[in-house]
Amino acid sequence: MSNNQFFKKNTVNFDFKNIHIGRCIRERMEELNVSIARTCKFLNATEPEVHKMFGKKSMDSELLLKWSKLLEYDFFRIYTQHLIIFAPQAGVQYNVADNSLKTILPQFRKNVYTKELIDFILELINTGQKTKLQVIEEYRIPKTTLYKWISKYNKV
């Protein structure tokens, strides 16, 4: 199963607000039928340590990177999707006193919506869980963008 297939299958029911990364890792491991022995060897961990990781809501980024490599899935993307949905718009500067501040860190475009995220939003609307207005207000998706998605992707 490819990265996209795994994500698409789980996106509709996935709770991007309350991420439990250990559960996600366990599900991916089960889907790929990766043995616990291979996992322990790859992570240089014992079986009880690996099982303990499945119970963790969050984990160290270096460890998450190893899991991503082992299971051939970008677990960081789950957090990226959370930021796209729930973080304030880029124009709102809550934490910066001086807007002229520069950073040496790479700058990324915030509003790059994946097909999986679009499907997630449209599913919320199609099932009646959220209205269009709620989606626009809660997820800060521009009205024109939402209506373009509806006309382009909506199968209902």
Structure explained in plain terms:
By secondary structure, the chain is mainly α. The chain folds into two domains: 3-83, 434 Repressor (Amino-terminal Domain) (Orthogonal Bundle); 102-153. It is built from nine helices and no strands. The chain has helices at residues 3-11, 21-32, 36-43, 47-54, 61-70, 76-86, 115-126, 132-139, 143-153. The radius of gyration is 18 Å and the shape is elongated. The protein starts with a helix and ends with a helix. Mean pLDDT is 81; it is low at 1-11. InterPro entries: Homeodomain-like_sf (IPR009057).
Summarize the topology.
Blueprint: H1 3-11, H2 21-32, H3 36-43, H4 47-54, H5 61-70, H6 76-86, H7 115-126, H8 132-139, H9 143-153
Helix pairs in contact: 1-7
InterPro entries: Homeodomain-like_sf
Protein name: Transposase
Features:
156 residues; mainly alpha; 434 Repressor (Amino-terminal Domain); 2 domains; elongated; Homeodomain-like_sf; Transposase
How would you briefly describe this protein structure?
The protein has 156 residues and is mainly alpha-helical. Helices cover 57% and strands 0% of the residues. The chain has two domains: 3-83, lambda repressor-like DNA-binding domains (434 Repressor (Amino-terminal Domain), Orthogonal Bundle), CATH 1.10.260.40; 102-153.
Mean pLDDT: 81
Number of helices: 9
Number of spatially distinct domains: 2
Give the beta-strand count: 0
> CA-to-CA gap between the ends?
26 Å
* CATH fourth-tier homologous superfamily of the largest domain: lambda repressor-like DNA-binding domains
Q: Give the topology string: H per helix, E per strand.
A: HHHHHHHHH
Strand residue percentage: under 5%
At CATH level 3, the topology of the largest domain is: 434 Repressor (Amino-terminal Domain)
Named at the architecture level, the CATH assignment of the largest domain is Orthogonal Bundle
The CATH first-level class of the largest domain comes to: Mainly Alpha
> What is the gyration radius calculated from CA atoms?
18 Å
Oligomerization state: single chain
Helix content: 55-70%
Which outline best applies?
Answer: elongated
